[in-house]
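FAQ: What does a ligand-bound record look like?

Like this one, built around guanosine-5'-monophosphate:
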Amino acid sequence: MQNLAALKEKLNLPKRIVITTHIKPDADALGSSLGLAGYLLKLGHQVCVITPTDYPDFLAWMDGNEDVMVFEGNEEKAQYLVENADLVFCLDFSSLSRIGELGEMVRKSEAEKVLIDHHLNPETFAQYVLWSTEAAATAELVFDLIEMLGDVDKITKAMAEALYAGLMTDTGNFKLPSTTPHVHNIVAALMELGADVSKVSHYVYDDNSLDRMKMLGFVLLERLEVIEGSSVAFFYLTLEDKKRFNYQTGDSEGLVNYGLAVKGVNVSAIFIEEEDKVKISFRSFGDIPINELSRKYFNGGGHKNAAGGTSFDDLKTTINKFKELVQGQIKELNYEA
Ligand code: 5GP
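The answer part, i.e. the structure of the complex:
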């Protein structure tokens, strides 16, 4: 941690604090933000978590959810809070462009910034930085920070559960190579602090609408393909598919992993049509740096085995581009078709 002692001193007196995280927060983004918010509230600070956009309902069980401010629809209030904050914590993103319009407000604010993140290539805008691409989740880094500040005993059951949700999901249920002994040690500590891991898993994974389950069945039946001569699977969702299954924020979360579950497949992609763009999620197994493909060809980034990107071509053109890459240039990723 860069400037830990100075941050600790800063936190000795009550501060106005904003915590923010990336667009369409997932369980790690929200869990690490609410876990940290719980801790900072306990220290006596004024804290507001501002998310750039809404997030899935299956995260609404987290303690503090009801006080989260969604930027979209609350722009003026959010601007006031960011402008008048003493500290802005930026969690689970490495560049201010990942938080949309809120990014420029944070940049312009005179508040000191704290970056806590595990993505590649962090932008240098923060005075305090806890950053490691070795960390499995931002929740891991938040736990590490609280531990470095000597305050693990201040973690409540609710905070432990929010942090656990981040670790559970960002490690793909403790299956990804990022699942280290340190991760398991933190999980053990969170359980000792009261985290009900079975409950968290139930809330995150077993809270699907019937529409979502039917969409999953449809996608697996009608939209999943393995590209001929390759070990790459992909599928897609059109605007029409989304309408048919009453698509809600978060409904496509995790779908991409089903491609990797096909025998012999080690790269999976899902293309999700939006009004003005196509949002893409990529997953890979083993030594395939799928974030490089995403960064180079699809305006994206992320981690070696889990990345995302955006295409401004239409759905068909985007999928064809991907297929051509798989059949040709993807070899530059050390990928053996
Ligand atoms: P997901 O596929 O779950 O949306 O994202 C997987 C990983 O890729 C996450 O770490 C996420 O932050 C990152 N990611 C997703 N979309 C983008 C994007 O458009 N740009 C960048 N730089 N990273 C992304």
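Follow-up question: can I read anything off the structure? Yes, for example: Residues 27-42 form the longest helix (16 residues).
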